Amino acid sequence: MQASVGDRIRVHGRTVGDREQEGEIVEVRGEQGTPPYLVRFSDGHEGLMFPGPDCEVEAHAE
């Protein structure tokens, strides 16, 4: 997975009833766009994450 600052990341719920989380990548700490990513989620909290197969990245519009 590769991403850039400003891209959106979406984490799908793992079980029935879990809600999807969405956030903005504010820092890329890996080489050439690889994880880990510092993400600011829509509820305001920030966290360092290593996305798994339940995540997708949407490139930001230029």
Characterize the structure shown.
- With 62 residues, the chain is an all-beta fold.
- It has one domain (8-58).
- Helices cover 0% and strands 40% of the residues.
- The protein contains no helices and five strands.
- It has strands at residues 8-11, 21-28, 37-41, 46-49, 55-58.
- Strands 4-3-2-1-5 form a five-stranded antiparallel beta sheet, with no helix packed on it.
- Strand 2 and strand 3 form a beta hairpin.
- The two termini are 20 Å apart.
- 10% of the residues are buried.
- The mean pLDDT is 91.
What's the total number of strands? 5
Number of domains: 1
Q: List the quaternary state of the chains.
A: single chain
Structural class: mainly beta
Global geometry:
globular
So how many helices? 0
How much of the sequence lies in strands comes to 35-45%
N-to-C SSE series? EEEEE
- Given as residue ranges, the uncertain stretches (5+ residues, pLDDT < 50) are none
Kindly report the spatial arrangement of strands forming the biggest sheet: 4-3-2-1-5
Taking the sheet with the most strands, its summary is: 5 strands, antiparallel
| Head-to-tail CA distance between termini | 20 Å
Secondary structure: elements and pairs:
Elements: E1 8-11, E2 21-28, E3 37-41, E4 46-49, E5 55-58
Antiparallel strand pairs: 1-2, 1-5, 2-3, 3-4
Region (Disordered): 1-20
InterPro entries: DUF1918 (IPR015035)
Protein name: DUF1918 domain-containing protein
Please outline what is shown here.
By secondary structure, the protein is mainly β.
